[in-house]
Amino acid sequence: MALLQVQNLSKRFGGVQAVDTVSFSVKEDQIYGLIGPNGAGKSTTFNLLTSMIKPDSGKVIFKDKDISNEKPHKIAMLGLGRTFQHVNLFSESTVLDNILMANYCRISDSFWGTIWKSFKSPTTLLTGQEKAFEILKLADLENYADELAKNLDHGHQGMLQIAIALATEPQLLLLDEPMRGMNPIETEEISDFIIKIKESGTSVLIIEHDMKAMMKICDQLSVIVYGKKIAEGTPDEIRNNPEVINAYLGS
Ligand code: ADP
Ligand code: MG
């Protein structure tokens, strides 16, 4: 069954058709990739999926529910989690606290609601600790639990960003360029982490420029150029698609 269905999504900014009638579906237990040159409309697509911006036309269906007009925090609570293209963490807090905060926040749609629920049901905090260590282990960050986030190197901060999004316990995790600025070893570590996320039962929708990594981790990919989807398929199909080679891979 499709977890996410994107139907004819369009968004224009002034003279730029950033997203042009884009459709695709992400199934459960899938890593789905969006590739395409800079300015192709990939981040805008993520912003439309999470209601950070409203589409001009088209629909987003998540778990059979039309979420096109839902508020961003409602969408997050429904199980659609995301990271951003730029670093987004509490740098003065420890790695563990970053994960715990994200995990507590998932249980309510407001800060005080979270505190109240934690107060009424202290076991939530306990479950949060267990869950946090489970996630840190998956991210290979358990040895850094007490380190301040700002003291981590670039690669580990990248892992932490994904771990924070995972701590909100999404069913589908949206990752925007998680390998940006990473060296080959860090890229390999992030790839392994994303595969482990899928194996632990969370589907992933990922935007990334590193073609080699995308071909390795994705089950299915769409290629976006100038806001339009020009091809869709498995890594092998995409690699051998003449239109893709022409428009993107060959450039
Ligand atoms: P990608 O993530 O594929 O690199 P983006 O989705 O960020 O591309 O951008 C697609 C196009 O939309 C670009 O031409 C960009 O300049 C434009 N764009 C994105 N966001 C805005 C915005 N908030 N206002 C105006 N133009 C935007
Ligand atoms: Mg982008």
Bound molecules: adenosine-5'-diphosphate, magnesium ion
Topology pattern, helix = H, strand = E = EEEHEEHEHHHHEHEHEEHH
Return Rg in Å. Answer: 18 Å
On the 0 to 100 scale, the average pLDDT is 90
Structural class: alpha/beta
How many helices? 10
The span between the termini is 36 Å
Can you describe what's shown?
The protein is built from ten helices and ten strands. By secondary structure, it is of the alpha/beta class. The protein has two domains: 1-10 and 48-78, no CATH class; 86-223, Rossmann fold, CATH 3.40.50.300. It has a six-stranded mixed beta sheet, with helices on both faces. It starts with a strand and ends with a helix. Bound molecules: adenosine-5'-diphosphate and magnesium ion.
Q: What topology does this entry show?
A:
Elements: E1 2-13, E2 16-27, E3 31-35, H1 42-49, E4 57-62, E5 65-66, H2 72-78, E6 80-82, H3 95-105, H4 111-120, H5 123-138, H6 154-166, E7 172-176, H7 184-199, E8 203-207, H8 211-217, E9 220-225, E10 228-233, H9 235-239, H10 242-249
Parallel strand pairs: 3-8, 3-9, 6-7, 7-8
Antiparallel strand pairs: 1-2, 1-4, 4-5, 9-10
Helix pairs in contact: 3-5, 3-6, 6-7, 7-8
The structure holds adenosine-5'-diphosphate and magnesium ion (MG).
The site of magnesium ion (MG) has 3 residues, from helix 1.
